[in-house]
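Teaching assistant's notes for section 4

Start the section by putting this record on the projector. Ask students to predict, before seeing the second block, whether Pentalenolactone synthase will look compact or extended. Collect guesses on the board.
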Amino acid sequence: MEQLPFPSDDILSLAPRYRELQDVEPVTQVLTSAGDAAWLVTRHETVTALFGDDRLGRSHPDPDRAARVSSSVLLGGPVGEHNTEQTRHRQLRRLLAPAFSARRMNLLRPRVGQLVDHLLDELAGQSADWHQAFSVPLPVMVICELLGVPYEDHPRFRRWAVDLTSLTDPALAGAARRDLVGYVHQLIPRKQNELGEDVICDLIRAQDEYGLTDTDIARTAAMLLFAGHETTVTRLDVGLLLLLSHPEQFHALRADPTLVPGAVEEILRLAATPSMTGGLPRYARTDLVIGETTVPAGDAVILASQAANRDRRVFPDPDAFDITRTPNPHLTFGHGSHYCVGAALARIELQEAFIRIPARLPGLRLSIPRHDLRPRDDTITGGLTALPVTW
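Reveal the predicted structure now:
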């Protein structure tokens, strides 16, 4: 039985083995990086269907005996109560929907643009590590404003967020999760006395209706604080790398900013770097037939969305980076009932960044060869350790 991760020879390429399995064995049993058996699903059509299939979930009736996908404390194994998972998932989406509504996101867009301009104004000299100078601070600033978290505290929770992504040190990641939840918990009494227009205050207002404890609020807000910036950091880094690796498309954005929404969708489709996990973990809640394969109840299933996003059955010339590609039904944000609640926020940040960067820095380019860039392949969010650029 093959074991994840599959090797890839380039930071922007899909491991060839995914494509081979897509063609001949789109549902196949593999060993995870943790050494347990799981079913890997690689085709776009099947991954799409399974994202919305209630017969799969993140919980397990016997979590201590469940297969582990990795050593991650967030995505390595089952989470949640098996009997109440689906009810709590629906409740959480109803609770968060107003916070990430189209209205609130559109009101936030001008502020995101201001933050982008501020970071570009702050660039000094003719070179920088783009990761530290831009890709990290922008999503941190945005999520702080949305949640109502003091930006001056960002060095602490940024460190916890990075530690929380670890695939190699579960103790470090577990401590980071406790620290992050504890940090948000101590903000709650202050906000209860002075309710504002932010997500944490929204959760406080909903306490009675949803029966939320302060700990429930702290856990929910802490995960939003983590997920609301860490994944966008990766997409800003890899998105810029894609554009700088295709300078003709970078210059096309400068010449025609109306191409930016399509460019962002193509970045979202391809902005995955090599990872140990192989995809998103799920567990079969009942015996499940996927194509011609029967998956027994309790077995782990890995939805390889990064492979599905390069399925030639859906995307002509799937490895090509084409900012004019349409349609572009990528699965980066999931699908159906598990579609990412923060998708609109991520799109706004990427659009506001990539409409300004080519205009402000037309000579932007890598300052080291692409093959010298190092992926963060020991984290659940992937991305780059650094992105040295000059202009």
